[in-house]
Predict the 3D structure of the following.
Amino acid sequence: MSPEGKTPKTPPKTTAKPGRRKAAGVGDNSSAEGYLDGQLLIAMPVMGDPRFERSVIYLCAHSSEGAMGIIVNRPAGSIDFPGLLVQLDIIKTSDQITLPENAETMQVLKGGPVDTGRGFVLHSSDFFIKDATLNIDDGICLTATVDILKAIAKGAGPKHAILALGYAGWAPGQLESEIQHNGWLHCAADPDLIFGDDVDEKYQRALRKIGIDPGMLSNEAGHA
């Protein structure tokens, strides 16, 4: 799905491989015995890349082939969900006032710097499209077809969902290297951090979730 009205190709390959190993650089006390898909990445304060500064990213996939995630705390700005439905010819302008509440208030986020013209819906697992929906972890799914937008517009979509334009991607070994160089913290995800409407507070909340006072962070080793 894209503002230009084109249905995207299938999302980047996001199937984690068996034989998972411990992510590099997360410390001996790590509870993540494998890749980090299904967890949240939290940018360290020393993150030098403005595209990811103070970002919280839900990691949809992490394998030997690389990683892919969605930033969940960066609003898209002037684009709102009803307006996007109109651009995609899913509804008429006059139909915006009759949308169900979850469609009317659905967040549109900047999911990352890659393929910003494509839409990715992170959602609860009460909605599934065969051959289109990826079940990630703990009841969180990813769908990137226009069909899910049509379902949401009709009130038949998932209970919880966010629409992200673009995604964050890492080449093989790149994310492990960034973690080793203390670019990221990580923690278990929860639906409230992913779908909560308090976007501006998610970074602080994610840090508190792992017991960290943001003012005490430095560029030393990351948290597992």
